[in-house]
Amino acid sequence: MKKVVIAIDGPAAAGKSTVSKAVAKKLGYTYIDTGAMYRAFTEYCLRKGVDCQNEGACVALIPEVEITLYPDGKVMCSGKDVTREIREPRVSGNVSYIASYKDIRLAMVDLQRKMAEKVSVVMDGRDIGTYVLPNADVKIFQIASVEERAKRRYLENQEKGIPCTYEEIVADVEKRDRIDSSRAFAPLKPAEDSIELDTSKLTIEESVQAVLDIIKEKVGI
Ligand code: DC
Questions:
Q1: Which of 38, 43, 129, 147 has a CB 3.0–4.6 Å from the CB of 139, allowing a cystine?
Q2: Quick check: is 220 in a domain?
Q3: Which residues share a beta bridge with 197?
């Protein structure tokens, strides 16, 4: 079977992980949530009492941080199951700082490339099509309006029992978009050869189908 690499990038809370997971399941590919890796690193900094805005102190933790993503969505970081914690507002509010540090990105990217070496993957993030996997067979840039993204994330948090207000989510999404798009190294931006998919008015099922249609057209599966 041909090895296929699908890159799905886009701003915070655009539904990338939900859609990527469903697409990967449908095609029998491995889903890789790169945001979870930056989140796990952030949780580790907070666990160690390190200020996430102190680049030197965060970068110094790289040798201690060991991140493993499991097929069922479990995320382990240096001996601790952080699956739930990495979705908490204290992590969401700090993760963009961690993701802006070049040395941390290089360590994460190394891991991400290794994960995509041997198997077909659907990888979601911010810089997958532009930097991590520039030769991906299909590159999708998934977007949605800020209001729609905040609404979805708010409902998701409510379902998971993570306390937050809608206003907090709007502020977090806008702040992360700003930091993620303006950082110097591998910022959030569409790859030149990416296909934009606006899911503001689409249901999850319609978004998944739209991605499958794009993949079918591009790689014929
Ligand atoms: O997709 P997410 O919300 O879980 O991502 C968390 C943060 O990690 C996001 O604010 C930006 C950063 N990120 C990144 O810089 N590069 C990636 N490939 C994935 C996520």
A1: 129
A2: no
A3: 142
Separation of first and last alpha carbons in the chain? 11
Q: What is the pLDDT of residues 91-142, one digit of tens each?
A: 999 999 999 999 999 999 999 999 999 999 999 999 999 999 999 999 999 9
Instruction: State if residue 126 touches ligand 1 by the CB under 6 angstroms criterion.
Output: yes
Question: Does residue 108 line the site of ligand 1, with CB under 6 A?
Answer: no
Is the CA virtual torsion 72, 63, 102, 52 positive or negative?
positive
Structure tokens at 160: 């998971």
For the chain, the domain total comes to 1
Q: How far is CA 82 from CA 29, 43, 99, 155, 183, in A?
A: 24, 8, 17, 21, 26
Domain extent, residue 202, equals: 5-211
- Test site for ligand 1: of 8, 17, 38, 152, most ligand atoms within 8 A of the Cβ: 38
CATH number for the domain harbouring residue 30: 3.40.50.300
Identify whether 217 is part of a domain: no
Q: For residue 140, list its beta bridge partners.
A: 8, 195
How close is the Cα of 184 to the center of ligand 1, in Å? 15
| Ligand 1 centroid distance, CA of 1 (Å) | 31
